[in-house]
Specification:
Elements lengths: L2 E6 L16 H18 L3 E6 L30 E4 L10 H7 L4 E7 L1 H14 L4 E9 L3 E3 L2 E3 L1 H15 L2 E3 L1 H5 L2
């Protein structure tokens, strides 16, 4: 099966200097960079997803801002497609599916941010479309969440998402496990 790597929203906004810093983002980006280097070396197509707000009042991921830029460490190389999205799901109102089909992609590997939002949406959508999906858990990041007066630490948010993926949507592997195959 022809594999493609989808790198989701690894943008400056998520860095400690950004407006929405994620727990462990630097480590996740470093791991994603290793996977991208391997993909390029072995001929696996890399697809970049970049979120841009279509709401002028959003204040984050504003088109043309530093925060909306893809981080330099995982920037597109050459002719790698960049899919700009305005919704959580990278397939919604984008040409991501068309791009995957144009490259003959039959299975996908996903890295990026945020585990509980855009990674969740792309993984579930891809699985629903019939793609076998692998998520590289240590090349993804998220943040603390709060609900009904309870704060859920980022590590627990992340672990819950990965457990849900593994239960029915994707294979979940570490970067080391993935690269050693």
């Amino acid at each position: 099966m022809k594999r493609g790597l989808i790198v989701v929203d690894l943008q400056n906004e998520y860095l400690p200097t950004g407006k929405l810093p994620l727990t462990g983002i630097e480590a996740a980006v470093a791991k994603a960079g290793r996977v991208m280097t391997d993909a390029r070396r072995t001929g696996i197509p890399v697809f970049h997803v970049q979120h841009e707000s279509d709401n002028d009042g959003a204040g984050i991921f504003v088109k043309g801002s530093i925060g909306a830029q893809i981080q330099a460490a995982v920037a597109p190389d050459g002719e790698e497609p960049v899919i700009v999205k305005h919704h959580i799901n990278a397939f919604r109102e984008t040409d991501l599916k068309h791009q995957l089909e144009a490259f003959g992609i039959e299975e996908i590997v996903v890295v990026g941010a945020m585990s509980h939002m855009c990674i969740d949406a792309v993984v579930r959508a891809a699985a629903d479309m019939g793609y076998p999906v692998t998520v590289l858990h240590d090349a993804c990041a998220t943040l603390d969440l709060a609900f009904n007066g309870v704060t859920v630490p980022a590590a627990q948010v992340h672990a819950s998402m990965m457990a849900a993926f593994e239960f029915g949507y994707a294979r979940v592997r570490s970067v080391e496990q993935y690269l050693s195959v």
